[in-house]
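Many introductory courses stop at the sequence. We go one step further.
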Amino acid sequence: MMNEPPGVRPGRRPRLTRRGRAVLLVTAVLVAAAVVLVPVLLLTGGSDNEEKPSTLVVPEGRRATQVYASVDQALKKPSGTTRKAVATAHLTLPQAARGNPEGYLFPATYPVDSSTTPASLLSHMVNTANQRFGGERVSAGARPAGVTDYQTVTIASIVQAEAATADDMAKVARVVHNRLNLGMPLQMDSTLNYALNRSTLDTTHQDTKTDSPYNTYERKGLPPTPIGNPGEEAMNAAVNPSRGDWLYFVTVKAGDTRFTNKYAEHRKNVEEFNRNRAKSG
C-alpha cells in the first residue's frame, strides 16, 4: 500500500502482498512451461484408470474469475462453463451481492467425483462461506464499525490481499477502518489491481487515474464488492481489528510490514522497500 498527499507524483508505488508474491513466483514457473492460466484449484486423488474420490483445494484470496477458470479445468469443462453456471446455480448470497459470488467462494478443500457439476461446487463453496461468515459474530463486529456484514466481507478480502500473517491482517483491517472513519480514500493497490484484472507489485501514477469504482485512490469508501475470496483468518481480522492509529503500511521485505500514522515515516519505509527491491532485482 502506498499513500501520497495531493501534489506528490511517484514513479513507483510499493505493492507487496501475500497474493502478489505468490503470483510472481508461480508465474515464473508457468511461463517457462508455456501455461497461461494459473491453476488456482488443485485437483488431488484419483487417476485415469480408477474411480477414486478427489478433492479440490481452493487457496485463500483467489478471485472469482480465477476460481471459475480452474473449476472448468478441474472438471474438464469448456472455458466459461462455470461462469455461466452462476446465473442458474441458485446460490444463497446476501441481497447486497446482487448475484455476484465474489467473496463467498470460501477457500477450503472440496470433494469432487463424477457427479460434481460447476453449479454444485459453487453452491458448496457459498454454503460453506455462509456457515463461516454468517451469524452474530460478523454482525457484532460490523455494527460498532458502522459497516454491513457484506462490507465486512469486502474488508476481509482487502485484508487477505494485503497481509500475510494474522497479526498483520488485524493491523491492515485497522488501517481500513481508520481511513474510512476519517473520510480518507483507502488507496489500496489490491483494489486497483482487481479493477485492472492483474496482480502486480508496482502501481504507476497513471494507474491511479483509472476510471473504476474499484480505484480507491480516486474514490472514497469501500469498493462495491469484495476483491477476492477471503479465508477465516482475514474475516477474523475484519471483525476484530487491532487497536491502533495507523494510516499507512508497506511491506519492506518478507516478514517485515511497517505500520505508522506519520506520512514522513511511511516515506522512509517506502524508500527502504525500493532499496530492497533494487537489490533483489
